[in-house]
Every structure is written in C-alpha cells, then in structure tokens.
Amino acid sequence: MAALENVFSIRLIYPLAFDTQHRVPAAPRDRERLHVFPHAKLVESAARPSLSVNAMRSRGRYKMTHYRSFAATGVTIAAAAALIATTTAASAGKLERGNRNIMPIFERGTYAEISGAFIFPHASGNDDAGNEFGNFYQRDTDFGGAFKIDWTDRLSSAYIVDEPFGADIAYDSAPLGTPIRGGTADGTFATLSSIAITSLTRYKFDENWSVYGGTRSQRTEFEVGIPVFAAGADYRAKAKADWGFGWVAGVAWEMPAIRARASLTYHSEIEHTWTLTERNSPIFGPVSQSRFTNQTPQGVDFDFRFPVAQTTLMYGNVHWADFSETALSLPTVTAIAGAPVLDYEGDNWSVKLGVAQVMRPDWILAGDVTYEFSSGEQRSPFRAGDGEVSLGLSSRHQYQGANITFGAQYKIIEDNEGPVTFPGGVNFRDQDVFTAGVKIGFNFVPQAKPSLK
User: Which of 67, 97, 197, 422 has the smallest C-beta neighbourhood within 10 Å, fewest atoms?
Assistant: First the structure.
C-alpha cells in the first residue's frame, strides 16, 4: 500500500438537513407530505392570529404548524457533517484523507453534488545532528462528487467519487548533504494519490429500517525517494497506477419525523498489485522492476444524528480502520534494511461530535470537534504525527434551489515521539493544518417521497 502516514485529508462539513420554513397545510394531502415535529406549536390559520389555543379549539379553526427543521429539502445531516472534517497533512489517520463517503445515499429525491478543498499544512523539525528543515508537507487539493437517484419509493442508488487515500511530503528544505536531504533536489519524499468510485444501492424495508451495499473501485499510485538508504545509494521506487476492487455494506435506522438517524457501514480492504520500478542506485542497478502486492485497510463507520431542539441537531461519528495489518514493504528495501519503509503499530480510531443550528430559513451554521487517538507509532520521516485534534466550522446557504456550503477546519497534529525506525533520525514540532472548502448540492426532486405504507 502506498506510503506515508502524513496525508492531506478532507472530510467537508455540510450542514444539516434543515428546512425552517413553517407551513400551514391547506389540504389533507399536504399534511401527509410533511413530517410533524413532536413539539410543534398550535396557531390559528391566517385569519385570527391573536386568538388563544382554547379559542381556536372552540371555533375549530386551528391547524398544526409543521416544523420542518429536520425534514429533508436537500441536504442530509450526514452531509451536514461533511464540508470540513479532517484535513491533515500528517495525520494519525495514517494515509486516510477522511472517512470513505457514503452519505449521498441518504439524500431525498434525485440529488447531485460537487465539492473541493484547499489544504495548507505547516510543520518543522530537525535531524539528529541538529540540522533544521522547514515545512515538509506540500499544499494539496481534494475533490469529490456524487449523484443519487430513487428508482422506487423503496429502492435507490448512489454513485460517489472521492479521494480516500493520499500523501505528499518532501524534505527539500533541509540542507544539502544532510541524511534526510542527501545531494538531491527532492531529498527524502513520498507521494500517494488515489481515486475511488463507489456504486451503492439502498433498500428501505419501511420508514425506519434500510440496508445498503455495493462495489468500490479504487485507483492508486505512489512514489518514494530515500537519498542515502545505503552507502552511495540514491533509492527511488515508483508504482504504476493500479485498479483494485472491494465492497461496502451497511444498515441504517431512521425516524423521519424528527430527522434522527444512525447508520453502521463496513468497507472491505482493497488489494492492489503494482508494477514497481526501483532506480537510480549503484547498489540496485540503474533500473529494476518487480510485481508488488499490498492492500488498503478495511474500516467501519458509525454515524448518528438526533435533534436536541426544534432547530438544532447534534451529530457524530466513530471511525475505525485496520491499519495494524497495513505496511509498505518494498521488496528491495525490506531485504536490505530488514524493515518495511512504513509499518503501522496500531489501528486508526477517531471520534467526532458536532452541532448544527438553523439561523434563518436559508442559513445554517455547524461546528464539530474531532479527536484521533495516538496508536504508539514508530518515528520516521514518513510518520511525523501520531494523534490529532481538530475544530471545524461550516455555513450552508440556500440559493435558487442549490445548497452552497463553505467550510474551514484547523487541526493540530501531535508530534510523533515514538522510537526511531528506518530511515529514522528526525524530530518533529509545530504541526498543524488549515483547510478551506466548498460544496454545492442540488435536489432535482426536493419534495418528500410518497409514503411507504
């Protein structure tokens, strides 16, 4: 699996599925199409707003105001927890850019979205000889998109594109001739890029329970450079892009009347077999090629949301990824050094908790805190961080039928102070990441679907 713990990740936060326009339905059909919030207020319909509830009852002239704060007009709350989530250049989340996205499957009607983010990391450190190096994280971008459609009132499908894994570091600011820089322009470096296409189908048993699943196709490629791997050696390895395939399965429970939901999703591991080219070394020869097999880890996500007031939702996520079974064991390096270039000691665990608040009918604010646990990783140029905490804020606006969300996140990465491993000899400090992003979503069929009964 492609290298580098230090990954630019992004999980954009898209505010919750709120619609704060209060309607007084004029006909039974309208009442059937609206979800009633349990604490809805009683008001008179139009003619005599000053009458008390008792007076209205006596005259038979009252109707229920349907609070649609959590009725879906476009965005689900899980989409609400997505315009900013984690963005990290060197995250304890290993190579993950963020949780693998499945939330568009919960959107109502026909839905499409596109998102993008810019990532600005910062870090510094020194080698064992005291030589300083500046920011080794590179600026990055992240993009995604999705399309969802209902086939019937019970069956729907979603097609999602994201970049689940990635990394981009280079110690090109270290002084020439130092172990981490060597005599090359790039010094020690590693890049990893990926793109995944997920095809999901969801079946609703009733208004509360549903199951979903599908396939995931993933393309990855990577390159690693180590200037002084061995005496006189300038080692580089490049893996040609390869497609791998896996699967996704999950179950969800919902209470549509109050927009509560909980879902549990499993992502299988995906195996890749790359053509690996090792070059530029008098020890290994000018060029050598081999076949190299590894996999990206399996994972589980538990997502939830529930209302705490008429216009306030709380949401969260618990995430696990099986990184303890993941290592970057390049054949030649492992044979000579006796250790993989990258080997993880523990799995990745993270917890997120957030709140979204309706400010106006067309404006929602959301914020969350995410904590990723340290897993006791060994220290190397490819594992600068081990644990992190982040704060995300987002603002969603409705404009001419579109939901436009702006988000930002600030993340502090815990410096890895574990035991030194290959290639080792580095100390890290002042690691943080700022990310800014935008998402545009559009519901082509914003009305609620017919009853399942």
Answer: 197
